[in-house]
Structures are given as structure tokens and as C-alpha cells.
Design a protein that fits this description.
The chain has 13 helices and eleven strands. By secondary structure, the chain is α/β, with parallel strands linked by helices. The structure holds adenosine-5'-diphosphate, riboflavin and magnesium ion. The site of magnesium ion (MG) has 5 residues, from loops. The site of magnesium ion has 5 residues, from loops. Keywords: ATP-binding, Flavoprotein, FMN, Nucleotide-binding, Transferase.
């Protein structure tokens, strides 16, 4: 008889990447490169971000100089661009779930280390804007402290060494492919949290791919579970969006039997980039009609593989007519799950119905019910 594999992986230490994993750096990177390239009469192509995520600073510089045929050396490029970045560090926001994860692991006494391809001084400067982060890490390893950056395993092996941990007991959390490769080469468990949309398929070497840090389940790795889930929902800091209801793909009612009163996603691109795609719930205020419970999806609808992000709130109420063009205001108060693909239309519909029941019930909890009084829902009614 062969011994069965233990169900949980015994992780004792966690190693975190910074840019794109804990911090929403991509926006700042695009902003700086755009500003820089304009001076050379060039236009930043946002698809170029794929070439630079997770790379060392010199690799990024080399790629940009080459791609845009810039009349300078990668070193000259770096010396101009570095101060442009540091001016923006104070504006970089934590990604959804980053603060929650750091607080949780810290409270459970799980040693954590930051390991990034950026120079150590840059890492320290960036995290200084985030309360409580610096003191939470046993060690910080920068790309300038090792010979080879990711995808070489060196940076993670050094992180394990500084924590006195065996690599096989370390869990790496990474958004980039070079980072995932480095973690696997170091003999560690790796959870990938791709920072760019629709990348999950290229992360097959990771032990698990999740959509955002909100979807991390530490108990899968032998660590203490989060204690903030309530009845299948995760409370979040409420956020608010609203506008006229627009036409969607015309399939919500027809194909699924679930109408969704779409909002124009392009009006909220900045706000949406601060939140992950996924299934959320909250309260919906409709001009002239009233306030209703609501469950929604934000994202690319993987089952239909949309190319545009959509905002699709399903109001948990039976209406007798359409209300296109009416002003719809949303208070989004909790998170349910990531968007997913499904083997059949029936299973997608069943899951959305289940989301509806979860939201319906949760919104009666005082912590969510209180947002029904939010003035935003009835503003301009
Ligand atoms: P579209 O693809 O244009 O969004 P849907 O089939 O999803 O089409 O239908 C959505 C429309 O149905 C909404 O814009 C709204 O006018 C209407 N509607 C009726 N009942 C509801 C409901 N309970 N929740 C959301 N929208 C509803
Ligand atoms: N689409 C998906 O492809 N995957 C999902 O997991 C998913 N979840 C949803 C959850 C809710 C609560 C709602 C209202 C919609 C969801 N959708 C999802 C979007 C659905 O496919 C979309 O509303 C219709 O295709 C109409 O465009
Ligand atoms: Mg719709």
C-alpha cells in the first residue's frame, strides 16, 4: 500500500512579490512610459506591458529602448526614468486584499518576506507609504542583492535563507511569469495572481492560479484561514458607481433569463482598475423607482470570453418593463467570488442564481443592510 499524499501542504513561511502582487504598479508604469515616450515623439502601446511585467529594471530598459528604437542606451533610459517613477510612488495603491493578507499573516505569526526584482531602496521607499507594512516583513530582498533576478531562483532562496526557512516550506505569491518560474525553480509552492487579465493559461507551472488576493485560501497551504468571510460573502470597503443604464449584449434576459442593467464601464476605468473583476453585491438605487438588493458581475464574462470589461448588475426584483437610460446608482458592499468559466450554460445560470440567493440573504445582515441608507443611492433621484 502506498501512503496517500497529505491533504494540506505544510507551509510555514510566505514570500511575496511587491509590484503587481501587493501594489497596483502597472498604472504608474504605463503613465511614466507614456510621458517619457511622448518626448521622443513615440506613443506608448499598452500591450507592451506584457513584455515588462516581472522583469529586472535593466531588462525593462533594454526592451523599451529596442521596441521603440530610442536614440539612447538602456542605461541612459534608466537614469532619466528612475526619478520619474520615484515621484509617483506615493500614489501607488495597495491591490485588493493586500492589506488584509499582510495583517492576517502577521496576526497569525507567519513570517513573511518581500522579494522583488527592484532595488532594495526602491522597495523600501514604495512600502513606506503603506501603514504597517515595513514592520510586517522579516526581511526584504531586492534585485540588487543577488547576482541574477527572477526567473533565477536566487532571490527566493535568499529570502528563505534570511527567514531560516526550508524552501519546501515556503509559499511564493507572484503576479508575473518570471516570478512564478523563479519560485518553482527554488523548490517552493507558488500561487500565481496574474496582474494582467486573461493570463491564467500561461501560468500552468504555478501550484494554483487565483484571480486576486481576495481569493487566497491560506488553509489550502496549512496556514490559518481568514476569519472575515460571512455566509459566503466577504465585506469590503463600500464603493459607489452610477450612471445611465446602457444596452449590453442583449443576452442577459434572452440567453440566461437573468437581466442585467449594464453601466458604461469606460466611465469608471480608474475606479475599476482599483478593484478586481468578480462577483459583488450591494444596493441599487433607481431614479423614480426606489432601492433594491443587487448582485453583479464585473469583468470579461469568461464563459462568453468578452473582449471588453462589463459591469452587469442584476436587481433582485421583478420589474414589468425595461429601464434603459434611467439613472442607476450602486453601493457595492461585498464580494462573493471570482468570475469563472463553466462547462455548460445551465451550470453558469445555476451559479448566478446561487449568487443571487447569497446576496439576498447577506444584505439583511446589519453590516450590509446599513448601506441601504447611503445618500448616494438616492442622490439626484
Ligand atoms: P442588455 O444586454 O441590454 O443588458 P439584458 O437582457 O441583460 O440586456 O436586459 C437588461 C435590461 O432589462 C436592463 O437594462 C433593464 O432595463 C431591464 N431589467 C428588467 N428587470 C431587471 C432586473 N431585475 N435587473 C436588471 N435589469 C432589469
Ligand atoms: N459570466 C461568466 O462568464 N462567468 C461568471 O462567473 C459570471 N458570473 C455572474 C454573476 C452574476 C451575479 C451576474 C449577474 C452575471 C454573471 N456573469 C458571469 C455574467 C453573465 O454571463 C452576463 O451577465 C450575461 O452574459 C449578459 O451579458
Ligand atoms: Mg445586461
Amino acid at each position: 500500500m502506498t501512503a496517500s499524499k497529505p491533504m494540506t501542504r505544510m507551509i510555514s513561511h510566505v514570500i511575496l512579490d511587491l509590484d503587481g502582487t501587493l501594489l497596483n504598479t502597472d498604472g504608474v508604469v504605463s503613465e511614466v512610459l507614456k510621458e517619457f515616450l511622448v518626448k521622443y515623439g513615440k506613443t506608448w502601446r499598452s500591450t507592451g506591458i506584457h513584455r515588462i511585467v516581472g522583469r529586472t529594471p535593466l531588462e525593462v530598459a533594454t526592451a523599451v529602448v529596442e521596441d521603440y528604437g530610442l536614440p539612447c542606451t538602456p542605461e541612459e533610459f534608466m537614469s532619466t526614468i528612475t526619478p520619474m517613477f520615484s515621484d509617483k510612488w506615493c500614489n501607488i495603491k495597495a491591490l485588493p486584499g493586500a492589506n488584509r493578507l499582510i495583517k492576517h499573516l502577521r496576526s497569525k505569526g507567519v513570517p513573511m518576506c518581500l522579494a522583488s526584482n527592484s532595488p532594495k531602496s526602491n522597495i523600501e521607499a514604495k512600502i513606506s507609504y503603506h501603514h504597517g507594512w515595513k514592520g510586517s516583513f522579516t526581511a526584504v530582498v531586492g534585485g540588487d542583492e543577488v547576482v541574477m533576478g527572477k526567473p533565477s531562483p536566487e532571490i527566493f532562496l535568499e529570502a528563505a535563507r534570511r527567514m531560516n526557512a526550508d524552501p519546501s516550506n515556503c509559499l511564493v505569491i507572484e503576479d508575473s511569469l518570471p516570478g512564478v518560474m523563479a519560485g518553482k525553480a527554488a523548490g517552493m509552492k507558488v500561487v500565481a495572481v496574474p496582474s494582467l487579465p486573461k493570463q491564467a493559461s500561461s501560468f500552468s507551472s504555478a501550484d494554483e492560479v487565483i484571480n486576486s488576493l481576495l481569493d487566497l485560501h491560506p488553509e489550502k497551504w496549512g496556514l490559518s484561514p481568514f476569519e472575515d468571510w460571512i455566509e459566503g460573502t466577504l465585506p469590503i470597503e463600500p464603493w459607489y458607481i452610477g450612471g445611465p443604464v446602457i444596452k449590453g449584449f442583449g443576452r442577459g434576459s434572452k440567453v440566461l433569463g437573468i437581466p442585467t442593467a449594464n453601466l458604461p464601464a469606460e466611465n469608471f476605468s480608474a475606479l475599476l482598475s482599483e478593484h478586481t473583476s468578480g462577483v459583488y453585491f450591494g444596493w441599487a438605487g433607481l431614479a423614480t423607482r426606489g432601492i433594491y438588493k443587487m448582485v453583479m458581475s464585473i469583468g470579461w464574462n469568461p464563459y462568453f470570453d468578452n473582449t471588453e470589461k462589463t459591469i452587469e448588475p442584476w436587481l433582485l426584483h421583478k420589474f414589468n418593463e425595461d429601464f434603459y437610460g434611467e439613472e442607476l446608482h450602486l453601493a457595492i458592499v461585498g464580494y462573493i467570488r471570482p468570475e469563472a468559466n463553466f462547462p455548460s450554460l445551465e451550470s453558469l445560470i445555476a451559479r448566478i442564481q446561487e449568487d443571487g440567493r447569497i446576496a439576498e440573504k447577506a444584505l439583511d445582515l446589519p453590516m450590509y443592510a446599513c448601506s441601504k441608507d447611503s445618500p448616494y443611492l438616492i442622490s439626484s433621484l
